[in-house]
Amino acid sequence: MANQDFVGIPSQVDTRALNRGATDFQRLRRGLLFNYLILGAGAILMIVPFIWMISTSFKPQAETVSFPPRLFPINPTVSNYIDVFDRANMGRLYWNTTFISVIKTVFNIYTSALLGYIFGKFVFRGRDIIFYILLSTWIIPFEVYLIPLYLMTVQVGWADTFTALIVPEIFTVYAMFMFRQFMYTIPTELVDAARIDGAGEWYIFHRIIIPLSRAALFTLIAFYFMWNWNDFLWPLVVISSHDKYVITVGLATFVGEFWNQYGVIMAGASLAIVPILALFIAVQRFIIEGVVLTGLKG
Amino acid sequence: MIQTITQKFTGSRSTLRAAEHRFIVIALVPTILFYLIVKFYPIFFAFFISMHEWSLFGNVSPFVGLDNYVLLAKDSLFYKVMWNTMYRTFAGTFLGAFCSLIVALILNPIKRGSILLRLIYFLPVMTSVIASATIWKWMLQTRFGLLNQLLSFVGIQPVPWLQSTTWAMPSIIVMGIWGGIGFTVIIYLAGLKGIPKDYYEAAEIDGASSIQLALKITLPLLKPVVSFVLITGVIGGFSGGFQAIYMMTGGGPLDSTRVLALHIYDYAFQRMFMGQASSMSFVLFAIVLILTLVQFKLQRVDWEL
């Protein structure tokens, strides 16, 4: 909006202030103050559940149910966290979830980059038909696949294995689509020049296309890692033994067992949330800018 | 061998070199096989299951034709489930789109601290719904939950948020809005960035107020983005809600929060009526398909404007 550069670029402020006069300047200032107030109130609403989770997780059981509510525990304790590690096998859940999420994300991104490159940069017969047929599976809700995929998994003997969690989700349409969009920003001449220099097709893909796709790559890696980490329904259906649970299923089971020990449950929720949030805050600039970059425009 | 496949596949008169042919074939053949086995075959299999009385434990699964669909049409619980699904979908999508639009409009002019604000609004998007639902269930707890404790300060009696047929669904909808607002705001902000600044400058010179700017310039130009957000929200809403409802109410009380996704899971994996559950998933599929076609039509109209 217009007032954006008003704040940011001093040289423009001068010319505009001349045009509009000082009263307008004050009006805009007041306007922004109003914006900050509303956004601040909204931000508090957004963040309260997290703060309350952390606060409860450090309270002894008696304090969690005491009135009035207190933000800071009177007798802070870490016993809830110790309980979670003892009873929920947290280390195992972290390992399983990380292992599966990393492998799935690597497959998702690699296959999508490859297909995005092929559909975006090559011209061959049937290209668009194949692309749109693959893309059409995007609209099919997972619930349609749930039952047949489960029965197929049982049939091939993959029930209760990590293979069943990973294999059906190696290829993914959304990232493929995004990479194909992104390919239009990479000049085709670059690929042709590399070919003339004698580079092989795989060399071009690995050494030219992938490095040039960095912006899309980081965003999609972050999103896919998050989605894979937070996946619930399929692991819930496929995995039955506790030592193969992922973190979401583990937390859901844990909440069922400790339903009235709020401190312990909130410690479990914190442990499920904090690693992924920390990771995301570390790379968040990429993510938020990347949503725009990869062409999310209505 | 590969050479002949490639020839057939890409056509001999193509301008591609052999190396490029090979590259494309090596990448596409496994992809197409995968999609055939994991994405297309299961749809036919699901339809096949929906024509049978399919139970995981029974050895025989008798063919029943379209009986499962007829049963659905006569099942009052299914109508209730569809009503709940639509209630959650439309209320959640429209309220969510409205709140996000407000946030995006007042966040857009801000420079200082905007990254921090975006991050805060984005936190719930990054959190797994299972964990968010766990927290919300605790905050909405009737006796010790934070919300009722705060309300008691202003003299409001404890409301059994998740145990009341009136309040359970609105609670889940509000939690859904909290969880999705950050993502929608970013889509709106991207749309707002695409509006040329000249428009505002010209209008300001003509003496337009900031409310006039919002109503006469921003909203009309943002219309395609708003309709994109609404339609994708509605499409996603019909198959959504499973995780939050599974964690917070399990579909209760008295099936007042039982939505389609939960109902399918419940029938297939708790009650083991896989045939019946498959027929429901096809009803869902049909709805989503129709909405998607509507979206294609609407978006085309928007581009033409």
Task: Please describe what this structure looks like.
Chain B: Keywords: Cell membrane, Membrane, Transmembrane, Transmembrane helix, Transport. Chain B: InterPro entries: ABC_transporter_permease, MetI-like, MetI-like_sf. Chain B: One of its GO terms (biological process) is transmembrane transport. The complex is a heterodimer of chains A (298) and B (305). Chain A has 298 residues and is mainly α. Chain A is built from 16 helices and no strands. The model of chain A is unreliable at 1-22 (pLDDT under 50). By secondary structure, chain B is mostly helical. Chain B has one domain (76-304): MetI-like (MetI-like fold). Chain B is 75% helix and 0% strand. Chain B is built from 13 helices and no strands. Chain B has helices spanning 2-10, 18-50, 67-74, 76-107, 114-126, 129-139, 146-153, 168-193, 197-205, 210-239, 242-248, 260-270, 274-304. Chain B is globular, with a radius of gyration of 25 Å. The N and C termini of chain B lie far apart (52 Å). Residues 10-14 of chain B have low confidence and may be disordered. At the A-B interface, α1, α3, α6, α7 and α8 of A face α2, α4, α5, α6 and α7 of B.
Overall geometry of chain A:
globular
Uncertain residue ranges of chain A: 1-22
Q: Say how many strands of chain B there are.
A: 0
Provide mean pLDDT of chain A, rounded. Answer: 83
Summed up, the domain count of chain A is 2
Radius of gyration of chain A: 25 Å
Specify the helix fraction band of chain B. over 70%
Any idea what the radius of gyration of chain B is?
A: 25 Å
Number of helices of chain B: 13
What is the top-level CATH class of chain B? Answer: Mainly Alpha
Largest interface: A-B, 98 and 112 residues
Element string of chain A (H = helix, E = strand): HHHHHHHHHHHHHHHH
CATH homologous superfamily descriptor of chain B: MetI-like
Helix content of chain A: over 70%
Number of helices of chain A: 16
The largest pleated sheet of chain B is described as: none
Would you tell me the structural class of the helices and strands of chain B? mainly alpha
- Determine the CATH topology of the largest domain in chain A: MetI-like fold
InterPro entries (chain A): MetI-like, MetI-like_sf
Pfam family, one (chain A): BPD_transp_1
Domain ABC transmembrane type-1 (chain A): 94-283
Transmembrane segments (chain A): 33-54, 93-117, 129-151, 157-177, 208-227, 262-283
